[in-house]
Amino acid sequence: MTSARRIGAPDAKNRGLLLDAAEQLMLEEGYAAVTSRRLAGKAGLKPQLVHYYFRTMDDLFLEVFRRRAEAGLRVQDRALESAQPLWALWRFGTEPGFAKMTMEFMALANHRKAMRSEIAYYAERFRERQRVALAAALQRYNVDTRDVPPVVWTVLMTSISRFLVIEQGLGMSGGHAETVAVVENYLRRLEGEPRPVEG
């Protein structure tokens, strides 16, 4: 009887180096550049160590995604707890690095069912936290949400901000300035001028 292959500890330093290197490769060259050989080279490790810490490349991608998603949830939670949660959500969605990574994971999910399920799971967590924060903010600002419920606000704000970043990455800009002006003028009416980001 064969024994199960040994896997490195989840908190091992080399494992963290591999996850960091995978993120960097995805941001710089796209997910297709993340091979065990390229990944090991970027991390300064031997290629065999990739499969010592991750049984498959799918396991690696899932762990990169989970780590990034958990960090994103923490950042978003802090932003939504700020004095200007609407501005915070808008800024969060227009951060180019976040949008680029999201696109890489979406492309990866086209080929990997497990990734698709994980993205959906985390996306629902992001959206629910956004909905709760926006519902409280809109109530505080006396906004009637019967016609446009808080969850619709979250979909609109995150979709518009993310799509603008994606189009900018493609070199497109038509309608962007006008769209940003409409959104930001509305945010100013509710929350005033955006304050500097803390910390």
TrEMBL record:
DNA-binding region: 35-54
Keywords, comma-separated and alphabetical: DNA-binding, Transcription, Transcription regulation
Cited Gene3D superfamilies: Tetracycline Repressor, domain 2
InterPro entries assigned: Homeodomain-like_sf, HTH-type_TetR-like_transc_reg, HTH_TetR
Stored Pfam families: TetR_N
Domain HTH tetR-type, residue spans: 12-72
PANTHER family, per database record: HTH-TYPE TRANSCRIPTIONAL REGULATOR BETI, HTH-TYPE TRANSCRIPTIONAL REGULATOR RUTR
Record's protein name: Bacterial regulatory s, tetR family protein
Source organism of the structure: Mycobacterium kansasii 662
